[in-house]
Amino acid sequence: MYHYFWVVVLIFCCKNQLRIISCLLVVFIVVMFCPVCCCADVVNTRGRELAIQKMKDGFYNFESEIDLTDCEITPADIAELFVFVIKNDPYLFFVDTKLTYYYRSDGSCFKICPQYNATPQAAAEMMVFCVEEVTRIASCADARLSEAEKALLVHDIICAEYEYDTSYINDDMFKFLSAKKGTCQGYAWTYMAVLRELGIDCCYVASDTINHIWNMVKIDGEWYHCDVTWDDNKDGKPSRRHFLCSDEKAVRQGHRDWYSAYGDKCVSLIYDDFDFSPLTHKVASGDADHSGNAELIDLLLFRAGKEKVCSVCADINRDMILDDADAELIRQIILSSAK
Fold this sequence. Notes:
Blueprint: H1 2-13, H2 19-32, H3 34-60, E1 66-67, H4 75-88, E2 95-103, E3 109-116, H5 120-138, H6 147-161, E4 163-164, H7 173-179, E5 181-182, H8 184-197, E6 202-207, E7 212-219, E8 222-226, H9 228-231, E9 243-245, H10 247-252, E10 258-260, H11 296-304, H12 311-314, H13 324-337
Parallel strand pairs: 4-5
Antiparallel strand pairs: 1-3, 2-3, 6-7, 6-10, 7-8, 8-9
């Protein structure tokens, strides 16, 4: 566009007899410069994609040095791509945020030296735990649910089973899942991991201005904001004020100056004034342990304490409170199934 601008200026500012020369100049610029620019963009895109893949592979293999010689990435790009990789993959919680890199005299990086917060064995054990917890939460979503209903179910489960960590210690997915509480990063990465397990595209959103991280989720081809952290009320009853919001609504509710993993916009207004309360979670009522049946063990687990059961599945009357009323309903379900 820069070259075309100056060509237009030449054509319309020169005298008539010079317009032929100006037109020839147009052809020269288009032929000589534009292909070069396009090729440079292609090379840069390929280099970034290659660097991202090499970093991910290197992190999971606990490499102390990752060779980026073929990527032609600048130090500024490395910092950006490093943040993208570790924030866009919730299972990379064992990678330290500190990074050492080396570059040539031409300014391109040829090697990075990451640091790790755990040994390979410890990281593997933590990852197995995370996979099990993510699978457990995802298993609550019946296949018959729509994408929006699945996203809502996972949103409500996380709000019901976890709480915000005011000590700001539990700031990754493993700490969040193991301690049952965490910061906004723990909420966002857990939500991202579970939705991806369900086949729903989800990414992180961050704002340095408000020092906060939340999610964007893709429902039926459209992106929406979802802030599970801000929807987790202390009384245990989740709010849905920050669920499936457009950019406009997100701004009205306090989010600002954000950047997302993919840079997408949330333009759909479909859910901005939507009442989510009538939606029911179509899971097997009373199946607190996800065995596929409502059985005596479900009632025993419920009476043993709500930490032993899936709170959403055990909340039979959907009042967001686990109490004797739910226990009685579970008992009635068991008795009726035994007839």
